[in-house]
Amino acid sequence: MSASAPKTIGSLDGLEPSSCETAASALAIVRDGVITGEGPTTAGRVHFSRVLDADDVAWCARILTAAALNDTPVSRAEAEALFEIDAAATERKDDGRFEDLLAKAVAHHTAAASGLPVPPPAPRCAAAETAIESWAPVNARGVRTDALEWVAKRMRGKRQANRVLRAMVATLVGVSVLPLAQLPSMIDIGM
């Protein structure tokens, strides 16, 4: 986000997520707004199609941290919806905030799906000032293989690489699960 105060975002036509399913549906509305530049999440502002901006990220954070979801870990459906938003955006104007939010949501889902303790998603996981390292698993011990395979599969072939997510996966399971094409960008040889 910019140095100025964040804008206040409105409501999704009265839709406040009451479950992971309605949160995933609300995130799909954000994705549609990113794709078309139109819809309830873009109302009252200029929004170009395929651009992800700070207001879009604020919508995502608000949805993921809705009061009704306080005791619920990030679901696979919510994480999938965030990956879809990531894929829909060809241009970023969010100062890296979405990359951080996506990595935290995926880490939260992966850890929770593995039965590991996670903090409530609201607001700790979505807060930009909370470092992912302060709560996410630091090694693969206890993380389910199928959850890690899902993350690796979602990361393959992405034209925009998420540095935070790549680093988390590399820390959890080593670079062996990452696509070989991403290895050069992860390793700084210092030449």
Provide structural commentary.
By secondary structure, this protein is mainly alpha-helical. It has helices at 20-36, 54-64, 76-88, 97-113, 121-125, 145-155, 163-173, 183-186; strands at residues 51-53, 91-93. It has a two-stranded parallel sheet with strand order 1-2. α1 (20-36) packs antiparallel against α2 (54-64), α2 (54-64) runs parallel beside α4 (97-113) and α3 (76-88) runs antiparallel to α4. The protein is globular and about 45 Å long.
- Return the average pLDDT rounded to an integer: 79
Number of separate helices = 8
Low-confidence stretches: 1-8, 175-191
Radius of gyration: 16 Å
Strand order of the largest sheet: 1-2
Instruction: Count the beta strands.
Output: 2
Query: What distance separates the N and C termini?
Result: 33 Å
Strand percentage, roughly?
Answer: under 5%
Binned, the helix content reads 40-55%
